[in-house]
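The authors assume throughout that readers already know how a fold can be written as discrete tokens. Each protein is reduced to its one-letter sequence and a matching series of backbone shape codes. I therefore recommend that a typical entry be quoted early in the introduction. For illustration, here is how one protein appears when written out as sequence plus structure tokens:
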Amino acid sequence: MNRSTSLIRRHKTAIGAGLACVAALGTFATATSANAATAHAHSAGVAQTDNTPYVVNHYGEENADQGKAERSPERLVLSEFTSARDLNWKQWNTKKAVATGKVTGMWCLDTCLDKPLKATLTLSDPKTVNGKKVFSSFTLKLADGSGAYDSEDLQGKRPLSTS
């Protein structure tokens, strides 16, 4: 076999190997994107329908007065004294929504302003307000128990803003 034929074969082999790598990377990237999309859908709890309630969120300056109807928000104002952030929604259906995240409030500013408390948040009691179904109650359970804090927001089911 002459030298130029051998060189051409090596080039073709290298190009073929490169194309195979590109194809493998493309398949990997597609699979990774699909897995990420599935994981995000699962972290939001369930596939939501028109009948799935919203939560009225007053988080942020633009929503402070009027509130904004949202599903699976990352941050949520629960009351005038308590807010939650870094919410990871485990469930969101027609009856209730459940998330874990971090909570701060006026009742723990000395201890939780810089280090928010881990908690489980449950939204419940959906009702229709102005033609839109929204959750009207919340329950908050601190991971370490609420014994150190005297706050109504930590004692059983509490009303949630619906407008």
